[in-house]
Amino acid sequence: DVKVTQSSRYLVKRTGEKVFLECVQDMDHENMFWYRQDPGLGLRLIYFSYDVKMKEKGDIPEGYSVSREKKERFSLILESASTNQTSMYLCATRAGESGNIQYFGAGTRLSVL
Amino acid sequence: GENVEQHPSTLSVQEGDSAVIKCTYSDSASNYFPWYKQELGKGPQLIIDIRSNVGEKKDQRIAVTLNKTAKHFSLHITETQPEDSAVYFCAATPRNAGNMLTFGGGTRLMVKP
Lengths: 113, 113
Hints:
The structure holds two protein chains of two kinds.
Chain A: E1 4-6, E2 10-13, E3 19-25, E4 31-38, E5 42-51, E6 54-57, E7 65-70, E8 73-78, E9 87-94, E10 103-104, E11 108-112
Parallel strand pairs in A: 2-11
Antiparallel strand pairs in A: 1-3, 3-8, 4-5, 4-9, 5-6, 7-8, 9-10, 9-11
Chain B: E1 4-7, E2 10-14, E3 19-25, E4 30-38, E5 45-51, E6 56-59, E7 62-67, E8 72-77, E9 86-94, E10 102-103, E11 107-112
Parallel strand pairs in B: 2-11
Antiparallel strand pairs in B: 1-3, 3-8, 4-5, 4-9, 6-7, 7-8, 9-10, 9-11
């Protein structure tokens, strides 16, 4: 089974803090994704990575950056957290561009106060 | 880009009844339509998918239908059970978008025993 592990289930941060959300996968998948989940808006793509050190902006990249130094790890960074970044964040992996199935972690619920 | 609308946002049914969730998409080039189920405290998980060259697909109690002309697709769950209670997301992927998914807003299904 594919395992996608997000380091924290819940995080509470202050406005202006730098926040790191970590995601690790154990299936050697090339592609990794960060989504944001908000009620009524579904899942919106923030950034994705198709290989180590490669990244592409998704639909809502503003206020976020990412890092992928190793194939198994994909980090989402909030340089200066704001209250409108309070949300559920989901990491996902996919075997490659030819693959269709995305495998999700359990999510990190971030509250920015 | 692609836009996916999903209805209803919430759906409550009695155990044993059927449930139908509908999605429409905007990009006629989309050719892959997965459905994900998100149980409480977990990440979304693929339950069924359909490609544009097929009109219907079944897997035990769940089925998906696709109408390319009208650009809509639906998830049908028969003989609902309490464990079907979850949030369901539809998605679409345009043919030349590297298999990137655009998700609908989600439907919270509640099955009452």
